[in-house]
Amino acid sequence: MKTLPAALVAASCVLALCACNKQPQVDPRIKQVMEQRHEGFEAIGEAFKTLNDAVKSGAGLTEDVKKAAHTIHGYAPQLADWFPPGSGPETGIDTKARAEIWQQPEEFAEKREALAAEAARLAELADGGDAAAFAAQVKKLGGRCKACHDRFRVDRD
User: Fold this and answer.
1) What is the CB-side half-sphere exposure of residue 136 using CA atoms within 13 A?
2) N or C, which end of the chain has less CB nearby within 10 Å?
3) Nearest CA to 99 among 80, 82, 112, 85?
4) pLDDT digits (tens, 9 = 90+) for 73-107
5) Greatest Cα pair distance in the chain
6) For residue 97, what are the β-bridge partners?
7) What is the spatial distance between Cα 125 and Cα 122, in angstroms, rounded to a whole number?
């Protein structure tokens, strides 16, 4: 009985492992957008936590609070670019985005634009100095976030 050369055996093993661990092939530009989307939502989440903590504690309009408000305001309009066709669950990449985003683009756009408008108002109030109006706006913005999450985000937490 003849034995196979070690290089041939090793190559066969590598091919077998690759077949078992096959990852979906996704356009690198789509992957990049999905990474931007993830990072952007992480930043928005951290900023919103800062706002909620400040409102709950009565900290007022500190520089950190103003910065957090402007962070959300800066990211909110970018949502329009974070969900191109082909960047949903069909990629096989872990995402909390539901397919409904692409199936009902008008509804998603409406919610996304409402969020951007509330975020712009939040940034205005952060600079305006009215802590009570700002706190009320944080609540309104949170409602806009929740409305979109309830409809278009997979809840795995």
Assistant:
1) 4
2) N
3) 85
4) 999 999 999 999 999 999 999 999 999 999 999 99
5) 87
6) 153
7) 5
Residues in the chain: 157
* Residue 134, amino acid: F
Specify the amino acid at residue 89.
Answer: P
* d(C-alpha 23, C-alpha 25), whole Å: 6
The encoded tokens of residue 148 equal 């979109």
Per-residue pLDDT reduced to its tens digit, 12-69: 444 444 444 555 688 999 999 999 999 999 999 999 999 999 999 999 999 999 999 9
Pairwise CA distance, residues 64 & 47, whole Å: 9
Q: Which residues contact 48 (CB under 8 A, 6 or more apart)?
A: 68, 72, 141, 142, 145
Alpha carbons within 13 A on the beta-carbon side of 54:
25
